[in-house]
Design brief:
The protein is α+β, with helices and mostly antiparallel strands. It has 13 helices and 21 strands. It folds into two domains: 3-64 and 124-209 and 309-384, FAD/NAD(P)-binding domain (3-Layer(bba) Sandwich), CATH 3.50.50.60; 91-120 and 214-307 and 400-480, D-Amino Acid Oxidase, Chain A, domain 2. Helix 3 (68-77) crosses helix 9 (342-358) and helix 9 (342-358) packs antiparallel against helix 10 (365-388). The radius of gyration is 23 Å and the shape is globular.
Length: 480
């Protein structure tokens, strides 16, 4: 991106403020640095010095996946980031080859592909991105500071900055203050106060759509054993709706560690005590995860998390919207994290902001951005809620007849993906947000489904292959 050209075309863009310094906020700051003379990120917590968990990101202790679309955006924004993660020990995972995925229709077929992923913890990925943004000369981070509200402009038509409240002011520093800004970006996550801030300025609160499958997590990190199961780097045991509520995911991350996340829907939350956690793995549709961690060494306590509802705030529908203020990331649209869409959709939202800022027309930019962001969020929202609606305990509406028909079609695609690599690859591209769901209706796929429709039996496999073990280079065969 050409910083000089951007600033010459928009010399009135002096200062931008980003509320929230998690992944969405840091990516927004990276974009804004190309368009504004100065960017300030206001973060309520104090950042750790290295790749460690932050108090304000409790979800970071669970498995996170950066989908292919998100990875490609980060590679564009931060050249060399992949090398940094690899040097830090993050494995590279082929999404089609290295993930043993037990779908509701059986084991997904595996084959080499170009859908490679960085298998890094959320802490490492966020730290690697954050330190690059912190290195930009026109970006400043203001830690341990809360935003108390928005400042109106003189004409009463827009936002002119933010009111601040420092948590630990330095000697001689005021507890409260104000920052003027030409653009304020709210990236403060699920707990965003944007509806209240807008109300204080005389704007209407947005409509909200909430779809909640009442899913809960429990996660723990283990040391990879000397004799790990062979043939995969990640294991996903998926629940089968509507009766099956329990899933398990194991992902190898940096430091030769396994991050294991168990999930249960409809209030069937996985336990956070040692015995209950392990026993939960025994109830999954395959014994592979239980066998993998049964003798593995735990490295962390068990962490639980239950704030997993899909929440969409329809800012794009508001008749009036202030200039100089935009909302993105989870503050605008938060997904059930079990589908791994959050970081990648936040990255796509940041790129949408870049596209809006590059256009010559300035008036109405904020309102246009909210409309375009809503379009970006539409597909991941459809994918997430479409799956959650399969469960009868889900609140926030029900799938209509068209949605149920689409669900049935997806079931056929998933079943075909257990035996056809081309169909599996296309399905993965949709899940990784690099293709739209409409591509699953291509004639080549429809014809395959029609040919196979009458040969499938109604029953599902009743026995799943157990984990195989292979000796490591340093361990004798007899030791395994």
């Amino acid at each position: 991106m050409n910083k000089q050209t951007s600033r010459q075309n928009s010399n009135s863009r002096r200062h931008a403020v980003v509320i929230g310094g998690s992944m969405a906020g840091v990516l927004a700051a990276r974009i804004l640095a190309d368009h504004f003379e100065r960017v300030t990120v206001v973060e309520r917590d104090r950042y750790p010095q290295g790749p460690a968990a932050r108090k304000g990101a409790p979800q970071a202790r669970h498995v996170h996946v950066l989908l292919t679309r998100g990875q490609r955006i980060l590679e564009q924004l931060f050249p060399g980031l992949a090398d940094d993660l690899t040097a830090a020990g993050a494995p590279v995972v082929d999404a089609a080859q290295d993930v043993a995925w037990l779908t509701p229709a059986g084991w997904a077929i595996r084959f080499p592909s170009d859908l490679t992923l960085w298998s890094a913890s959320r802490e490492l990925l966020e730290w690697a991105v954050r330190r690059r943004v912190m290195g930009l000369p026109n970006v400043q981070f203001l830690e341990e500071c809360d935003v108390a509200g928005l400042l109106p402009d003189a004409a009463g038509q827009g936002v002119a900055g933010v009111a601040l409240r420092r948590r630990r002011p330095a000697a001689g520093e005021k507890m409260e203050g104000e920052f003027t800004a030409d653009l304020v970006v709210d990236a403060s996550g699920r707990g965003s106060h944007a509806p209240q801030w807008l109300g204080a300025l005389g704007y209407s609160a947005p409509e909200e759509t909430v779809v909640n499958s009442c899913l809960g997590y429990a996660s723990r990190v283990y040391q990879v054993p000397d004799c790990p199961p062979e043939g995969w780097k990640a294991l996903y045991l998926q629940s089968k709706a509507p009766s099956g509520t329990r899933s398990g995911l194991l992902l190898e991350v940096e430091g030769k560690r396994w991050m294991v996340t168990l999930s249960g829907r409809g209030g069937d939350y996985p336990p956070t005590d040692d015995a209950g956690f392990v026993e939960f793995t025994r109830s999954l549709p395959s014994p592979m995860l239980y066998e993998a961690i049964r003798d593995a060494k735990p490295l962390t306590p068990i962490s639980g998390y239950r704030a997993t509802e899909n929440r969409l705030r329809h800012y794009e529908r508001l008749a009036r919207w202030p200039e100089g203020f935009v909302v993105l990331g989870d503050a605008a649209c938060a997904f059930n994290p079990v589908y791994g869409q959050g970081m990648s959709t936040a990255a796509a939202g940041a790129m949408t902001l870049d596209q809006c800022l590059r256009r010559p027309e300035k008036k109405g930019l904020a309102k246009r951005f909210q409309r375009e962001l809503a379009a970006v969020n539409a597909i991941p929202w459809l994918l997430a809620t479409g799956e959650d609606y399969r469960y009868p305990t889900t609140t926030g509406g029900r799938a209509g007849w068209l949605a149920r028909l689409q669900q049935k079609y997806v079931d056929w695609v998933v079943q075909l993906s257990t035996e056809d690599s081309a169909v599996r690859l296309q399905f993965l591209k949709v899940l990784h947000l690099i293709e739209t769901p409409q591509t699953l209706f291509r004639p080549s796929i429809v014809l395959k489904l029609l040919r196979r429709a009458f040969s499938w039996g109604a029953s599902q496999p009743t026995h799943w292959p157990r984990a195989q073990r292979t000796p490591s280079a340093a361990t004798p065969t007899s030791g395994c």
